[in-house]
Design brief:
- Twelve copies of one chain form a homododecamer.
- The first copy, chain A, is an alpha+beta fold.
- The first copy, chain A, has one domain: Flavin-binding protein dodecin (Dodecin subunit-like).
- The first copy, chain A, is built from one helix and three strands, in the order E-H-E-E.
- Chain A has a three-stranded antiparallel β-sheet with strand order 1-3-2.
- In chain A, a hairpin with a 5-residue loop joins strand 2 and strand 3.
- Chain A is elongated, with a radius of gyration of 14 Å.
- Chains H and I meet through strand 1 and helix 1 of H and strand 1 of I.
């Protein structure tokens, strides 16, 4: 393995479906602007309950990506 | 935003289906007795394995709700 | 000291002024419904930024009070 | 196992005897007002030293109990 | 309840489907070699993003099982 | 609520006045370059004592903001 | 001191008597199968309340032992 | 920068005014007996509620100072 | 309550009897050299297993005491 | 000291030599694109073992730098 | 990537040379008995000072390895 | 083992060479004033980047030593 330097960005994905969908939303958004996304780590999970009782799930993740040389 | 005071209650939802279903079960129970449930935060996740090998998932969450004035 | 049993309730005070004011708001609300409030512990601090840029500070505290015998 | 919802209450038992006695005091008080106490988890341990040098031990525990359906 | 001694093993389940599936994979593997698996606790969640953009989810769990007498 | 993706940036505000002023300094700087700042979370508090004994307070916060679609 | 390599095993001792007895039960079991047990560290303490109100205390410990060369 | 060795002392400042005043009280006391106080880090915040409802805020800080050569 | 400043010292009590005895040993030693010991907080618990299988329990505590004015 | 605002970036340095070299690699990369790098804090350390048994050490650090006014 | 299940073992490497050497000692020992060692994570670092003042450094790591199918 | 009482002091070693050298500097300083230094535990690692780009590494350790009887 070549010795790269990586950067971690902390982002929050949201979804009305569930926690896995919130992670996918966060990763999809990250991949649209960052090349070389390599891994994620879940930091915390929470959600907001709207006035009609439906729930918006939020998952905070750190996304790791290789910095270009 | 008006300056409300909120309370956090720690509850444990359980489900044989998975962790998202356990969160939903906990929130549904909370909303049946507490008005003004506004958000939740996941504290921890675990589960019990029954004698026949099936798994009961448990998610500990904190539920935040506005105290009436 | 007599051997009492105490209970901890987690509440969130909010204020547009600052974090000390948010703690005072939470304690004032607690004292209006709970007798024998004895101490508090800060759990976390955060805040919401409103659309006009003003900030609502939130302090999560645990309030300890003596259970009546 | 039926899928119940549980609640966690944080209480503080005190005893001049020691930490196990403080846990028993907290559980005894909890069982006098809550039905269905199922488990406890130790959160932290501390104590106060009185002017004559004797010690009041305090154990903070979370008590889990099944919510009635 | 008889006073057993339990052991905790830390394992990592992986799945391209999601976090619940990763937990199931870890538990299934544990049950194939360990008798008396009784519970699990989630330690952390993360995932690797492959070159084609698909994601391998990883859930680190501790598995508790009764030691034979 | 629409399902947005948010980003968290960790910044450190400083002030000779106190911790609330340090948070305000950090938020003001963040709002000058980032649109859509929505919330902050306090990570840690510290300070440096200068040679003449005056104190520079530092508050580390995470600032959450909505990513444009 | 010779430079050995040690291993840590996480085990759970249980006892109806108290936490010290639960630690002793865990260590006794460990020593019956592992040679060279050198130290333990308490990870967490909890307990289950049985239907008749008696309590089974559980102490999770890590046991350190020297690996044979 | 010369390579000094520093020491950290954990002290608790108290004030009826607020948390910043409690930090100032702790630092003032530290500076009266320790030369070369260089920085502080907040460890935790809490307070005691007196019988008349007034509050004594307490901030636990670590104070760093250079050891004389 | 007068606004005192307190100091926290971290000490380790040891005992072949159990954890409560280790806490008592640490407090007794602290009280022999420090006036005004007011409280303790348990930081961690561990123990060493001697060659003959007996166990020396160790409890790390922080001891709080009032600084003289 | 002037009251600046700082930013923290989380990066991962890698090296086949060891952990200090991994920190140096991360700092060198940071300094090539960020002016005013002032400090770092180690978040975690880990490493990957390659198929031939050699090890790539990874150190996750937070890098603090002054934001230009 | 194929969906494997991994196991984490917690081991302690020791060395009179330094922390990197202690990690290498732990990994070398792990690789001598476990096939498929893939990564390590540093849990904590400490050391013992011997009577002649020399120091034995200890690094606690978790070693991850693929379980055979 | 005789049942001693130990004390933990938190100190910060600094070095331009690396983290192991910073630990050695802290231990050397501790041993010059404290008899009976027995062990250390690493609390955190950080460093300051000087204006010319060189780095001063800092390691915060707790030093344990036996209190004289």
């Amino acid at each position: 393995m070549t010795d790269h330097v990586f950067k971690l960005s902390e982002i929050v994905g949201t979804s009305h479906e569930g926690s896995d969908a919130a992670i996918r939303a966060a990763l999809k958004r990250a991949q649209s602007t960052i090349r070389n996304v390599k891994w994620y780590e879940v930091v915390s999970q929470r959600g907001f309950v709207e006035d009609d009782g439906t729930v918006q799930h939020q998952v905070v993740i750190k996304v790791g990506f290789a910095l270009d040389d």
